[in-house]
Amino acid sequence: MRKTKIVCTLGPACDDSDTLRQMIAAGMDVARFNFSHGTHEEQKARYDRFVAVREEMGVPVAAMLDTKGPEIRLGTFKNGKAELVRGARFVLYADPCEGDEHGASASYAELYRDVAPGGTILLDDGLIELSIESIEGTDIVCRVVNGGKISNRKGVNIPNARFSMPYLSPKDVADIDFAVDNGFDLIAASFVRTAEDVLLIRQQLERRGSDIEIISKIENEEGVQNIDEILAVSDGIMVARGDMGVEIHFERLPAIQKMMIKKAVAQGKAVITATQMLESMIHNPRPTRAETSDVANAVYDGTGAIMLSGETAAGQYPVEAVRTMNSIALTVEGDINYSGRLRSRTGATVPNVTNAISFATCQTADELHAAAIITVSKSGRTARMISKFRPGVPILCCTCDERVRRRLNLTWGVHPVVIPEVDSTDGLFDLSVQAAIAEHMASDGDMVVLTAGVPLGVSGTSNLLRVEVIGNLLLSGTGVTGRTVSGSVVVCRNEDEVLRLCSEGDVIVAPYTTNKMLPALKKAAGLIVEQGGMDSHAATVAMALDIPAVINATNATQMLKSGMPVTIDAARGTVCAAKK
């Protein structure tokens, strides 16, 4: 099960139900809707199509609305494009006009107030550079430093500038209302500079009675400098390397990315690494080696999610891009020593009950080689606190709220499911264990670590940890060979019974073993022997024949009955009742 989540941007390339089905099957966990483009009518049609496919497939893929934010763009050009020549004069106008090689309008009419002669203006993700020579009224007169072709509505970036424009535009407010009205799970807030920007969105949501979670996109120097205060009021962050890479020197980006991921993980907040991860797959069916390493390094850094933009929104290979992202993440996760990383977190937690229980849960699961961590959470907070320790064991979060389930689909390592509400801890844990079995995360004989809060249903009260073996534990002893096997028991009390009663695939139960029994032992699926000691005949035979065995199984011949189906877990030295 992949731990790092995949965010996919929806657009014209996947505006059909079949492609969406294939993207979800390939590993899409969150669908991103970019409201910098398209009308509400277009996005509504796209969203309704996505929801219909999601419901049809019965999956909790979350929907994230990405706001336009206080971005600045050029207006339109005659014939849709122009070419700027190095050394030429180019003017940015406050009033709307049709642009050409001599000038164009900017979407922010007050831009002339926030820039000064000697400053730099970058167009089209930094491909074109302008130097500001003078401010003449509302016109910004520039000289082209690096020329190139430019087209309609390309982005405008001014490094290190602080703009006086309000953070929330009327369009952003309308888009936030759209998210509330249509049941979006997440809002990605563009160009967040300070905590106040996030709180403005939070206030707008509260006015609508909504608790949609906010992912703050860090895209400029001011946002990087204020990362701690932004994280404190956000539900997560996005390392938005597009505009960030334009406004901040590119050689600083890797260190900034690692810093932001580390801070978000430490606080149990979502973190998405985005932009140009598999950019070449917009046109090619395979990624470049550099892109593969970029995705891999983000996973090694511990990012919670990796994002595809143009690759799935407008590319020729949207499904292949998701499959590629999934494959890289799975391969890298298989190379990470999660146990070592967990041990290094000792002493690095804030001292409170939830943190202590969450860390102890991860440690216990790691040391006992548990099949899964099962958490019961009303709000999803417990699952996030466990996730921040990045355990190697899969995390199953059982919640009663479908909205919480979808939001948790962005959380690293968490597989969320919905269960009915019950009013007892034992009943809740029973349902959770059943869910783990149904989701193929555990089976009879597996050990699981459960955590929840008491009293039930109260958010933020995680204070309970329990270790259970799934199924009916019949007996335990010392495991040999470390494998798991199921079969039907044949109880034998001596050599003659072993040779006479045992057939191919039986689980032989005996007080001891001898060389005379070898013909029957070679046919056995497993051994349960009362005799103990790793130097015993039974242990030696089990290792020589590679048969899962439990030795030192006191009173096994009295406790077990012939014909009984059992599961031997030789890694844990347990014998459980198996389903017939």
Automatic annotation (TrEMBL):
Pfam families (alphabetical): PEP-utilizers (PF00391), PK (PF00224), PK_C (PF02887)
Keyword Ion transport: no
Domain Pyruvate kinase C-terminal: 355-467
Top EC group: transferase
Pathway assigned in UniProt: Carbohydrate degradation; glycolysis; pyruvate from D-glyceraldehyde 3-phosphate: step 5/5
Domain of life: Bacteria
InterPro entries found in the cross-reference section: PEP-util_enz_mobile_dom (IPR008279), Phosphohistidine_dom_sf (IPR036637), Pyr_Knase (IPR001697), Pyrv/PenolPyrv_kinase-like_dom (IPR015813), Pyrv_kinase-like_dom_sf (IPR040442), Pyrv_Knase-like_insert_dom_sf (IPR011037), Pyrv_Knase_AS (IPR018209), Pyrv_Knase_brl (IPR015793)
Keywords annotated in UniProt: ATP-binding, Glycolysis, Kinase, Magnesium, Metal-binding, Nucleotide-binding, Potassium, Pyruvate, Transferase
Keyword presence, Transmembrane helix: no
Named cofactor requirement(s): Mg(2+); K(+)
EC number(s) on file: 2.7.1.40
Catalysis performed (reactions): pyruvate + ATP = phosphoenolpyruvate + ADP + H(+)
GO molecular function, one term: pyruvate kinase activity
Domain Pyruvate kinase barrel: 1-322
Domain PEP-utilising enzyme mobile, residue spans: 504-573
Family per similarity comment: Belongs to the pyruvate kinase family.
Name of the protein this chain belongs to: Pyruvate kinase
